[in-house]
Amino acid sequence: MSGSIRTNIQQWETIGMNLLWQIVDWLLVKMKIVGAACLVGMTFLTCADVVGRFFGYPIFGSVEIVGFMATLAVVMALPYTHQVNGHIGVEIVVRLLSKKLQVIIEIGTGVLSLLLFVIVTWRMTVYARTMQQSGEVSMNLELPEHLVVYVTAFCLLVFTVNILRSVIENIRKLKAR
Predict the structure, then answer these.
(1) What secondary structure letter does DSSP report for 144?
(2) How far apart are the C-alpha atoms of 6 and 108, rounded to whole Å?
(3) Considering only CA atoms, which of 38, 42, 36 is closest in space to residue 59?
(4) C-alpha–C-alpha distance, residues 78 and 163, integer Å
């Protein structure tokens, strides 16, 4: 393969990857907003339900809705939290190691996380499809639960792509050393 063709292919790969990361970043921002809205909604709904119960008028199905919103708040926040390293890490020992070894450990944990969440995303999608086919609905409001599971699977897919990005960036860091 000639040098110019190889250069053109590399340029297209770079453009494609940059476009993918831009889409993921855009999704992260939107998902973060939806997750925050779910938290606010949970707060208001719970407060309204407590006040309503005090006066003898509870909100029917509030427990189901709060459960759905809690699930969505968590899965919507996962990718963004990973991107900004907002998760809790145990690095007392790792901090003492060389920078190169720290990057190798990050790659290893990233690859293991990637494998885990590929499987979890796949199984969550299968589970949502099974729920949809069975016609399963929530107990009180009879809302189709498979929709929340599909959204969860999508959020986990975005999370998985985000993990892939961090593994790729860490491999590039390691190559640069």
Answers:
(1) B
(2) 30
(3) 42
(4) 11
